[in-house]
Design a protein that fits this description.
The chain has four helices and seven strands. The protein is of the alpha+beta class. The termini are far apart.
Amino acid sequence: MKLLNTLGLLTLLLGCQTTPLLDTGPLGKELLEADRAFAALSERSNPKTAFAAYMAPDGLILPRGSVGAVEGLEQVLAALGEGDDPGYRLLWQPQFAEVAAAGDMGWTWGQYQVLAEGETISTGKYLNVWTRQADGRWKVRADIGNQRPAPTSTGK
């Protein structure tokens, strides 16, 4: 009897939800295309140019080895390296995107590689949280990377 009551309550609660929480349809595709455009700009130019174009003014990064977040567009750009071209390439391949049903926030994830002097020096996964700006464009609110461990001498 207790199981039937629990199942009945669960059915009632699920029936009350009128809209899905996530959108992997048109808005998800739009966000995935924004991340692909962000990646293409980094590949064509450099990471600083791409982040300057796609990071929200209040954006933040959680860089490897830091105690906390680097917050604000100017601080993020400074953390990416000195000068207009930081001297390395940051490439990434967006894999998936979802957008909240309200259409104002979403996330993407993918794989990344850092190259210096033509050599891959780091690889990993990333997760970006995006917010839709007042003008309708998507901007990165938070950039989080997860570096893969370096291969061991035994190749494992």
